[in-house]
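Before drawing any conclusions, I needed to go through one protein's amino acid sequence and its backbone structure tokens, quoted below without any editing.
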Amino acid sequence: MSDKPNLDEVTNFDKSKLKKTETQEKNPLPSKETIEQEKQATS
């Protein structure tokens, strides 16, 4: 086994076999307005 990894599979990978997927944000960060409303509600 050598020190350098074998990159043959990576360089010969066929991207056209991949499926297209839609990325969805599962836990989006709150907006500035939401943060301000929560600050005012707690004080």
Remarks:
- The mean pLDDT is 85.
